Amino acid sequence: MAETTFTNATQVLEPFRGIKRVTIEEYFTSGHRTCQGCESALVMKLMVKAAGPRTIVLGSTGCMYVANTTYYTTPWVVPWMHTQLGSSGSAALGTAAGLKVLMRKGKMKSEPINVIAFCGDGGGADMGVGAISATLTHKEYNSLILLYDNESYANTDIQLSGMTPYGANTTFSPPGKVKRLIHTRWKKNMAGMMAAGHPECRYVATVCASYAVEMMNKVRRSLTIGGPTFIHSLDPCPKGWDYDPMLSHELGELAIETGLFPLYEIEDGVLKYYGKTKAIVDGRARKPVREYLLKQGRFAHFTEEDLGYFQAKVDEMWEKWEIPAVIPFKRLDAARAALDVK
Ligand SMILES: Cc1ncc(C[n+]2csc(CCOP(=O)(O)OP(=O)(O)O)c2C)c(N)n1
Ligand code: SF4
Ligand SMILES: [Mg+2]
């Protein structure tokens, strides 16, 4: 077959200007078995709705694989493939490269096809972070990696991951009488890390499905820009976080209103805050983190001291970080003062 010209063109997906402009077609429908109130399932639905029909979705092991692919049923309307737990990055890169070669050789029609690989926090922020990092260095291949972060290895019964919040009760960190807090590490900053460390990656964003149109527009922007891009989504998980499923939406909002999870995008190195995060940057008071934490059973063992520590760490993100809530370097004057004391 004759070779056709292949460029790195992407689909141009204009933002949905308001909820009434969102397209009606669904590409993630019935046929899944996620828990009631599962925000990660909503993220899948919004992600692929934003991307549209000419999309291939790849997903690493986890709830969004297991609960979505029960034998003989699937909610996916677009082509979907499972990949190994730590392999979302490799799957994205390999698929994008494969498509490019097939089109260049004329073995398939040359057209922009979205490649989205999703991963959980265990698969993406722990096991697969190396492969994601490698993919974000390959500007010649268009793909989006979406990390759906339910803050635990949920599918295997809520083990703690590098993204589990400080002090949370998980099956690996049950609070005890002798030691109240088993998990005392602060959560990784995946979006900040990806943005700061990958100069070839033109687009990094954070999203929460409580803000659905904004979320879909960030997916559309990432796919339009092309090259390797990265989105981190915070997903309330009723089972792992131990709350009434009807609170999923509210918990997503509280994560943003308390300043715990900032909503932003970084496009070509330019940072833009969104929604209530932008309001906080502009001076609106943050809600106390206790309003968020005490609605969840995984923090039911927290004392005032634990709540105070948690609040102080979030305050630090906003008051001491060089780029508030995004990049955790301290301002030079503070660093200099610290040196002078020594
Ligand atoms: C290499 C490897 N180790 C362990 C497992 C078992 N396993 C399957 S799903 C899963 C949890 C994945 O957690 P995460 O990526 O956060 O996704 P979630 O289940 O929370 O959606 C684990 C540990 C596996 N499939 N592969
Ligand atoms: S355990 Fe959490 S992430 Fe998994 S299906 Fe249930 S609500 Fe969704
Ligand atoms: Mg998880």
What keyword list fits this structure?
single chain; about 350 residues; eight-stranded mixed sheet; two-stranded antiparallel sheet; 13 helices; disordered N terminus; binds thiamine diphosphate
Short overview:
By secondary structure, the protein is an alpha/beta fold. The protein has helices at residues 39-51, 63-66, 88-104, 121-127, 129-135, 190-197, 212-225, 238-241, 248-257, 275-281, 290-293, 304-319, 332-341, and strands at 55-60, 80-83, 114-120, 143-149, 203-207, 228-234, 264-267, 270-273, 321-323, 327-330.
Radius of gyration: 20 Å
Total beta strand runs: 10
- Estimate the global geometry from the Cα principal axes: globular
The residue-averaged pLDDT reads: 95
Q: How are strands sequenced across the largest beta sheet? A: 2-1-3-4-6-5-7-8
Class derived from helix and strand content: alpha/beta
* Beta-strand content estimate: 5-15%
What is the straight-line distance between the termini?
A: 71 Å
Main sheet specs: 8 strands, mixed
Query: Which ions and ligands are bound to the chains?
Result: thiamine diphosphate, iron/sulfur cluster, magnesium ion
Number of helices: 13
User: pLDDT under 50 segments (min length 5)?
Assistant: 1-5
H/E element sequence: HEHEHEHHEHEHEHHEEHHHEEH
**What proportion of the residues is helical, as a percent range?**
25-40%
